[in-house]
Amino acid sequence: MQNTLNRIEQMHDSSLFTAAVFDQAESERIGVSNYSYWRSTFRTFFKSKLVIALVALMAAILLMSFLYPLFSKVDPTKVSTRSRNWNLRPSWDHLFGTDTLGRDIFARAWYGCRNSFLLAFCIALSDVGIGMIAGAIWGYNRKLDPIMIELYNIMTNIPSTVYLVLLAYIMNTSYLTLFISMASRGWIVEARFFRNRILSIRDSEYNIASRCLGTPMFRIATRNIIPQIISLIIMEAALCIPYSIGSEVFLGFVGVGMPVDAITLGNMVNQGRASFTLHPYQMLLPTAVLCLITVAFYIIGNRFADASDPRNHL
Amino acid sequence: MDFSGKVRGNKMGKYILRRLLRSIVTLLIVFVAVFMLLRFMPLNGYFPQEMIKETDEATRMAYLRNLGLLDHPFVQLWRFLSNLMHGDLGRSITVYPKVPISTLMAEKIPTTAFLGFWSMLVGIVAGISMGMMMVRWKNRLGDALGNGYILLVRAVPSLIYLFFLQIWVSRWLNLPLVYDKDIPQSWILPILCLSLSSVAWYALWIRRFMVDEENQDYVKFAFVKGLSRKAVLRKHIFRTAVIPITAYLPSDLLNIVAGSLIIETLYAIPGTGGLLTTAIKRQDNNLVQVLVLMYAALSILGVFLGDLLLAFVDPRIKLTEEK
Amino acid sequence: MKEHKGPLLLAAKDIVVKFNLRGQELTAIRGASLDVYEGETVAIVGESGSGKSVFTKTFIGMLDANGKVEGGELLFHGEDMTRYDTENQWLKVRGKKIAMVFQDPMTSLNPVRMIGEQIAEVIIWHFHKSHDEAKKETVELLTKVGIDEPERRYRQYPGEFSGGMRQRVVIAAAIACRPEILICDEPTTALDVTVQAQVLNLIKALQREMGMSVVFITHDLGVVANVADWMAVMYAGKIIEYGEVGEVFHQPEHPYTKALLRSLPQLGVKGHDLYAIQGTPPNLFKEIRGDAFAPRNPDAMKIDFLEEAPAFPVSETHWARTWLLSPQAKAFREALIKKEAETRSVQTPALPFDYEQAEPLLSVRDLSVHFKLGSSRVKAVDHVTFDIYKGETLSLVGESGSGKTTIGRAIMSIYTGNVEGDISFKGRKINRKLNKKERGKLHMEIQMIFQDPMASLNDRAKVDYIISEGLYNYHLFENEQDRLAKVEKMLAEVGLTSDFMTRFPHEFSGGQRQRIGIARSLVMNPDFVVADEPISALDVSIRAQVINLLNRMKKERGLTYLFIAHDLSAVRFISDRIAVIYRGRLVELATCEELFSRPLHPYTKALLSAAPYPDPDVEKNKAVLSYHPERESREGKEWIEAFPFHFLYATREEAEKYVHENI
């Protein structure tokens, strides 16, 4: 031991054993982790190549489905009277071939995408939007609780077919009917989801602190609540899209979906099904597009949900 | 903390009674809402196209009056309910004219329930095993395969994959394309198709609950006790994760009588699946009412029984009820 | 001087643990060493983030998935456990030879399995015994850890047990295999003081009986004094001082240990600042060079910033890693000792608060608060009456669930509809429907400081907004510049610089966050502040800072505090009067000195006797009283003034008895 001490003594300059200057700011420094919620969320989200590819693909499809109808001269509703134009296999003239009436399936696919997207966006917007507001009111008002729970039970206990079919019959089949029949139901499910989240935020200490400071409701909503649930909103909206396209297909199958002459992905799948055994491509190609969209949005929604959870920010 | 059995019994009884009353109120509201909605339907819907052409207004009105469809909705409601009290479900109007609905149901429910029961068993067994497999090999191949399956089943509209399964798998395995109650091979595909989504559902939730439980302190403590990962998964994580799932079992069991519209149509199964839709389309009010009442009652009963079952299997719930 | 009781059992040498966090590699343990001898208790003391938990987790191979032991060795029975790479190797040690008890008994047990099963499974797993044999042993274990009616309790679920009982069950499961080493990771931190004393006694008794070694992790020096034979002080991933417990307490050498012991509120003199450690403990992201404590040490030497000190021996049984012990630092050390002796000159305590002249600021009359739990009503606060005088600090002391926080929140009007009784502030009743103006005025006059600094700041808002929130609400600024100036001034008052304004709360440590919380509450210049356990979630080294800050604010701004706490040491230092609350009822209320010198109610006595005191000589010989009223009866009890300004909730006979016992 004595040897080591001697060695240390030899190693150090004795001027080092004098008082150092104390720096108050330095003592408060804990080491910054460079953590930012949104940066970490996006980094985790885009770390997967699959996600990057899907987001890029969806952006391209989205863009194309809105640009194609503006710039293309092909009329998706143009029926050919000549039978040699019917049921053409895919070729350079008709990338996806033509259907039993000689309409170009490629063009119809883009129109279908656009219409289905529009419908899905509207439904996502209203479901999540109304759901969030209703959920917030529900979460903040204890007296509403029994009423809302009862409403939720009632609306989820009426078999969805009954509801959709009834509404489609009472009003005529149209985009609006489909929208109303789907949107008038979806919001309550979202409302319950948001209500549970908002309940836990409402009782959190920082929110109680805001109440003690007398912060008005509006600022509590914009500062305390929305920043916490915005990632949930994005996720729920993304997941609404496969759901609404799926419902559209189902309603087409039941026969109460869109009017027959409306071009939507759901209609194309259902119409293609009839001629599947003879001309499989008429169904396969639009179906592939549809599945690509629903699967992509499903993956994007779920991956975003994972990425927005701080526990996954590694 | 400690309560004698009698106190517990009393509290439990009160709880059940309260829940039951609430369920009945919900059921009534659902039923009345659907009943009233049905009265908004156009009167012409009650007749086939030919009948409208062949008969005059007066005959048709007489026909409707005869059926009681022109009375005030509340009168109709009252009539329906009082008949129901006497065990009379009424008769079908347009779909199976004049056939008593009870006969109709007795004919159709067994087929649907039979297929549904087996598919539910497949769903639970395969789904739970799949979920456990996914947790056992989390973030590895087993998990990826399971996730892929769940993704396809949940993201692709069911009509699409059911349609392709019917066409391709029946050809591949040389199975009959449609259902025949005398040919057991023809049951395989419908049962399989019926179970697809429930397999995904059980797997998804078992996985999610187990992954949530994995981070709990008691799981860490179980590891610290020296148990192997396999033992901890089985004895601790799975046992906690499966509890919330049990709440859905009664619903699943009861709802099998509703059948699946798509599968029963694709395989031409003479079950209850398409009945409701057809009945609504043809405005067979009696049939719709009975069906809606039945389905709503079953699903409400299912939720109710699920809560009871949960209170029975989850020791945490008894306590909060007692406090 | 003290010898080790038995042979060396486990030797951890220069353990290095690294974590991979968001792509960054961080060193959590920077070469920590510890020897565990048979039959002894060694306590590891450190703050959150010092790595004490991580360090001991390496003993049983339980690091989180992103952590890895990168260096050093762990010798146990001649094997280096850092080389274990399969689960099977660990399974022979974990739970069987080295067992562990966690901090929170409420979450350590599986809520859906019977408690008996959870103990028996260890016996079955490790010793392959039959179910019946294991059950028999489990019943014996339950008896051993002090659980009555073990046969019946065996079949119960954790939900039917209280926190203290659950911790006993956890301990029973941990000792089921008669392990050689029991690691206790803050096993009593989540428990109430009276329960804590019982659990500590249980651990000590079991250790004696079974001849185990215990590694005890804690941040509480009082607990260390109670249980430990040896203590190791950990700071920033390194053991910086190690020795026999009495030696370290009485002659600490490392500046951090010294400062820690000096800053304890038990040593404070009323009316004066506590000795406070500056700054904030480092986290994993901070790069450390030289002595990790040097940046916070006002008396650091230049070499402390350059190079890490080796372990210099103080005696045979005590060493410390500080350059002060180097022969070269002799002159500096002597000067330092002299300087310390000067500053430690006797301070005279401030005069006690004058209650003869005091005017009440806030009055609480017959306050009851109830909650709905399922279908039944639970009374959290039951007919509580007290006054708070202008300028005083009234402390409300009680165990968890006693209703103390509920009283604070009722005063803040957080509850609606379930509050009965009167709360009046400056003579006006405030628990009624107020109009917007009155409510706003009240918000400006009464503010609250919260317990958990991690939960009480909105982590999606910047510090700037958090502090300005009150200013925005009542538009208490002329223009943007004025607002910024006000925020800056407030930050400076709580000891933070203005460049913190644009940061988010997660970039701060607990103590800094708590100071931000205090700034947020005080920016509107309130008269009255409800401080709800403002220091109990903080690290020991920064508690003194926050206590001093609260006291300084009180003096400068003429504040009145309602201080809610369970930690008696801080209460004694900070308060003028103390109210003891038990199960929603106030049981005793007296001035601070009066209560500590002449406690009357048996519950108060139990509370005082159970509080750990940071001196091994005192702590090891103390007797703990317990209070278990057989029957909760309200009959005949009333609020009696036993001595001037000393109130008691009891029947007349009881009061007489209590007073008689104290004369």
Explain what you see:
The complex is a heterotrimer of chains A (314), B (323) and C (663). By secondary structure, chain A is an all-alpha fold. Chain A has helices at residues 2-11, 24-28, 37-46, 49-71, 105-140, 145-157, 160-170, 175-202, 205-212, 217-254, 265-274, 280-308. The model of chain A has no long low-confidence stretch (mean pLDDT 84). Chain B is mostly helical. Chain B is 75% helix and 0% strand. In chain B, helix 6 crosses helix 8 and helix 11 (249-255) runs antiparallel to helix 14 (285-313). Chain B has helices spanning 5-38, 49-54, 57-67, 73-85, 101-136, 141-155, 158-172, 185-214, 217-224, 229-246, 249-255, 261-266, 275-281, 285-313, 315-322. Chain C is α/β, with parallel strands linked by helices. Chain C folds into three domains: 37-69 and 92-252, P-loop containing nucleotide triphosphate hydrolases (Rossmann fold, 3-Layer(aba) Sandwich); 265-345, no CATH class; 361-565, Rossmann fold. Chain C is globular. The B-C interface holds B 1-2, 14-15, 216-218, 220-229, 231, 235-236, 239-240, 243, 314-316, 319-321, 323 and C 60, 62, 87, 91, 93-96, 99-100, 102, 104, 107-113, 121-122, 125-126, 157, 159-162, 170, 173-174, 177, 373-376, 378.
Short description:
The complex is a heterotrimer of chains A (314), B (323) and C (663). By secondary structure, chain A is an all-alpha fold.
CATH homologous superfamily label of the largest domain in chain C: P-loop containing nucleotide triphosphate hydrolases
Radius of gyration of chain C: 26 Å
Q: In CATH, what is the class of chain A?
A: Mainly Alpha
**Top CATH class of the largest domain in chain C:** Alpha Beta
Q: Main beta sheet of chain C: strand number and arrangement?
A: 8 strands, mixed
What's the arrangement of strands in the largest beta sheet of chain C? 6-7-8-3-9-10-12-11
Number of domains of chain C: 3
Give the helix/strand layout.
The complex is a heterotrimer of chains A (314), B (323) and C (663).
Chain A: H1 2-11, H2 24-28, H3 37-46, H4 49-71, H5 105-140, H6 145-157, H7 160-170, H8 175-202, H9 205-212, H10 217-254, H11 265-274, H12 280-308
Helix pairs in contact in A: 3-12, 4-5, 4-12, 5-8, 5-10, 5-11, 5-12, 6-8, 7-8, 8-10, 10-11, 10-12, 11-12
Chain B: H1 5-38, H2 49-54, H3 57-67, H4 73-85, H5 101-136, H6 141-155, H7 158-172, H8 185-214, H9 217-224, H10 229-246, H11 249-255, H12 261-266, H13 275-281, H14 285-313, H15 315-322
Helix pairs in contact in B: 1-14, 5-6, 5-8, 6-8, 8-10, 9-10, 11-14, 14-15
Chain C: E1 8-21, E2 24-37, E3 41-45, H1 52-57, E4 67-76, E5 79-80, H2 87-91, E6 98-101, H3 105-108, H4 115-127, H5 131-144, H6 150-154, H7 163-175, E7 181-185, H8 193-210, E8 213-218, H9 221-227, E9 230-235, E10 238-244, H10 245-250, H11 255-262, E11 312-315, E12 318-320, H12 330-343, E13 360-373, E14 376-389, E15 393-397, H13 404-411, E16 419-425, E17 428-429, H14 436-445, E18 446-449, H15 463-474, H16 480-493, H17 510-522, E19 528-532, H18 540-557, E20 560-565, H19 568-574, E21 577-582, E22 585-591, H20 592-597, H21 602-610, H22 616-619, E23 638-643, E24 646-650, H23 652-661
Parallel strand pairs in C: 3-8, 3-9, 6-7, 7-8, 15-20, 15-21, 18-19, 19-20
Antiparallel strand pairs in C: 1-2, 1-4, 4-5, 9-10, 10-12, 11-12, 13-14, 13-16, 16-17, 21-22, 22-24, 23-24
Helix pairs in contact in C: 4-5, 4-7, 5-7, 7-8, 8-21, 15-16, 15-17, 16-17, 17-18
